[in-house]
Amino acid sequence: MKRRDFLRNSTLASGAFLIPAFLKPFEALAKDALTGHKNLVIIQLSGGNDGLNTIVPFGSDVYYQKRKTIAIPNTEIIKLNDMQGLNPNLAALQEIYDQGWMSIINSVGYPNPDRSHFRSMDIWQTASDANEFLSTGWIGRYLDSNCQSCQNPYTAIEVDDTLSLAMKGQKMKGIAVQDPNKLFQTTREPFFKDLVNGPTDDHLHEDNLGYLYKTMIETYSSADYIQKTSKTYNVVAPYPSTGLGNQLKSVSKFINSGLDTRIYYVSLGGFDTHVGQQNQQGRQLKIYADAVAAFVKDLKQTSKLDDTMIMTFSEFGRRVEQNASNGTDHGTANNVFLFGGKLAKAGIYNDAPDLQNLENGDLKYKVDFRDVYATLLNKWLEVDNGSILNKNFAGLDLV
């Protein structure tokens, strides 16, 4: 097949461009555009994690009244204060919390909450209002605003084979890399190399064809850089053999090898617990806690924890009262976690959720999630949050 035929066969009838998964679009970013060497790692819990059974408000009688069969027994909770404690499946995080490397923010949400997984996740990933529909993510807009003169495409890496909306800007995007070796080998296939090395002038004069050639050349170069740089460091710390454990182990390898990357994005699903919640959520929380604890301890051992901030979020919490299937349905406000060696306020940041003053059976949010983003943008990435979030948010005293 000729190069031109391949490219034309990759064009949909509608004019949209179909790019293979390993060629997720991105734009150039460079080391000299970075302001320091701080890392931001984002962990997405997909499905709507039940925050009330994660950070348990055991000091509230309403909690046990509303959750007669799924409430975590008082005797099993890892007490953090006289009101809240960790789900026992988060036991691996107790040491992290005690060391002052964890902050818990309660009742995080946004006005006029949406209970759709897809819509609420879009809101979190784009940092939009509930009635606003944006096609760019908040991280992507960070890249657009701060990396326009960059030349390398790996300032934002998602450890996956697809790229989340959060990572997509108008002009610049992150890159999805699940396995550096696999990406490298794919880009070294003879057909791929032939395409990269042989564009003609008339190819480049056609916008779609020129963009694909540019993307392929950047992917070819990036695959080489990521593979060669990351293989200079071997992770020696033990990690659990889970999907999230492997993702965070890869992030550790990237950070410790000196990869010129600023933001990493990973995710863990399985939190849509409408039926039989306790066992299902318990399994996922243990996977999460064991992987995060291994990651934090690893970064501490390699002296990278002070330079790394880790944020965990889910698209919404669950309703306060359990349903008839020993589960919980889609709710609103939830908890957000931050981990790092330089937290200005470790521990529990604010009061426990108010289980008596509800809105249609749901928690009322007390902290806008964009104030969390503003904190990370202003105080960690050292940029003006207003230019990225489309309005100024005060932020929190956390970093």
What does this structure look like?
The relative contact order is 0.21. Strands 1, 5, 6, 7, 8, 9, 10, 11 and 12 form a 9-stranded mixed β-sheet that branches. A 3-stranded antiparallel β-sheet has the order 2-4-3, with no helix packed on it. The chain has one domain (3-348): Alkaline Phosphatase, subunit A. With 399 residues, the chain is α/β, with parallel strands linked by helices. The longest helix is centred in the C-terminal third of the chain and has 25 residues, at 277-301. 34% of the residues lie in helices and 13% in strands. The chain contains 13 helices and 12 strands. InterPro entries: DUF1501, TAT_signal. It holds the Pfam family DUF1501.
List keywords for this structure.
399 residues, Alkaline Phosphatase, subunit A, TAT_signal, 3-stranded antiparallel sheet, globular, 9-stranded mixed sheet, alpha/beta, 12 strands, DUF1501
Describe the secondary structure blueprint for this structure.
Layout: H1 3-9, E1 39-45, E2 55-56, H2 61-66, E3 78-79, E4 85-86, H3 94-98, E5 102-109, H4 117-126, H5 138-146, E6 156-158, E7 175-176, H6 180-187, H7 190-197, H8 201-204, H9 207-230, H10 243-256, E8 263-268, H11 277-301, E9 308-314, E10 334-340, E11 347-348, E12 367-368, H12 369-380, H13 386-389
Parallel strand pairs: 1-8, 1-9, 5-11, 5-12, 6-7, 6-8
Antiparallel strand pairs: 2-4, 3-4, 5-10, 9-10
Helix pairs in contact: 6-9, 7-9, 10-11
Classify the fold: give the CATH topology: Alkaline Phosphatase, subunit A
CATH class wording: Alpha Beta
> What percent of residues are in strands?
5-15%
**Bulk shape:** globular
Radius of gyration: 22 Å
Query: Which structural class is indicated by helix and strand composition?
Result: alpha/beta
Helix percent band:
25-40%
Largest sheet: 9 strands, mixed
InterPro entries: DUF1501, TAT_signal
